From TrEMBL:
InterPro entries: CO_DH_flav_C, CO_DH_flav_C_dom_sf, Diverse_Substr_Oxidored, FAD-bd_PCMH, FAD-bd_PCMH-like_sf, FAD-bd_PCMH_sub1, FAD-bd_PCMH_sub2, Mopterin_DH_FAD-bd. Gene3D superfamilies: 3.30.465.10, CO dehydrogenase flavoprotein, C-terminal domain, Uridine Diphospho-n-acetylenolpyruvylglucosamine Reductase, domain 2. Residues 1-212 form the FAD-binding PCMH-type domain. Keywords: Oxidoreductase. One of its GO terms (molecular function) is FAD binding. It holds the Pfam family FAD_binding_5. PANTHER family: OXIDOREDUCTASE, XANTHINE DEHYDROGENASE SUBUNIT C-RELATED. This is Xanthine dehydrogenase YagS FAD-binding subunit.
């Protein structure tokens, strides 16, 4: 780890008024600083900022500094969000990690985290050895010749499925962005991972009111049952009336370069019966456009099965 300066601004205005890298729970930033993947000269500890609170009065509003464990256990949080959080990392990390930081966490690609290896995301133009190297954990959707790394967040998948927005503030003002639009495909610039502008800070996560999202779930498939990143995951919310699907939300993770909304499956489900056969038919298009690599072609069939499993669980 390289030397750095640490300050702790007491107000949002003070935090936005000075250059530096924001530190909340530190469960991603500190790891990457130890590896010299990130080497900020100035770190701003923002834990004293008034960016907390969980409001379930009309939809869901979550302050960016709320800890993952507190959100997961809060009454009124949609089940898909709670389950995604509870299946993330370990209890100790969930007690530290903030929701804002979780949404900004970097990929767990081994090439990205090894400064002795080339990586377009870390060092633009250096190459992507994962394309032809060790790529079992990597993406099959949303990839490019420049990057095939998966997005690591579990809860981002659930939030994208539920049409969440994030509030952003900077010295020049405030704005709101749909989380689905916030994350960028790698294209030729995989180092630009999202739409966060220099000096900008996430202040709040907002999920619109969706009463039928009480029937929602998150399914995560991984190599071991705890403290492991997803090989594939699916967040599902279903509005079922008289044994038919009136509306649906489906997003997946562990298989794409960003949380991946499956609107084609949602369209296929609407108006149809809430049966296993209908779920299997709808999930048949889950991997459309997939580009499997040498070590992860199994994710194509795993993705379809995971979506079906989540739809069955979400329909109960």
């Amino acid at each position: 780890m390289r030397p750095f300066d640490l300050t702790a601004p007491a107000t949002v205005e003070a935090a936005l008024g000075q250059p530096g890298t924001f530190l909340a729970g530190g469960t991603t930033l500190v790891d990457l600083m130890k590896l010299n993947v990130m080497t900020p000269r100035h770190v701003l500890d923002i834990n004293d900022l008034p960016l907390r609170g969980i409001d379930t009065g009309d939809g869901l509003r979550i302050g960016a500094l709320e800890r993952m464990s507190d959100i997961a256990q809060h009454p009124g949080v949609y089940p898909a969000i709670s389950r995604a959080l509870l299946q993330s990392a370990s209890q100790q990390l969930r007690n530290m990690a903030s929701i804002g930081g979780n949404l900004l966490q970097r990929t767990r690609c081994g090439y990205f985290r090894d400064v002795n290896m080339p990586c377009n995301k870390r060092a633009p133009g250096s190459g992507c050895p994962a394309v032809s190297g060790a790529n079992r954990m990597h993406a099959v959707l949303g990839t490019s010749d420049s990057c095939v790394a998966t997005h690591a967040s579990d809860v981002a998948v659930a939030l994208v499925a539920l049409d969440a927005e994030i509030r952003l503030v900077s010295a020049s003002g405030q704005r709101t962005v749909r989380l689905a639009d916030f994350y960028r495909l790698p294209g030729d610039t995989p180092d630009v991972e999202n739409d966060l502008r220099p000096g900008e800070l996430i202040t709040e996560v907002v999920v619109p009111r969706l009463d039928w999202a009480r029937r929602s779930t998150y399914v995560k498939v991984r190599d071991r049952q705890s403290y492991e990143f997803a090989l594939c995951s699916a967040a599902v919310a279903l509005d079922i009336q008289d044994s038919r699907v009136v509306d649906a939300r489906v997003a997946v993770g562990g298989v794409a370069t960003r949380p991946w909304r499956l609107t084609a499956i949602e369209d296929a489900l609407r108006g149809g019966p809430a049966t296993v056969e209908a779920f299997e038919d709808a999930a048949a298009v889950a991997a459309d456009g997939a580009k499997p690599l040498s070590g992860n072609s199994f994710k194509v069939s795993l993705l379809k099965r995971t979506v079906v499993r989540a739809l069955i669980e979400g329909s109960r």
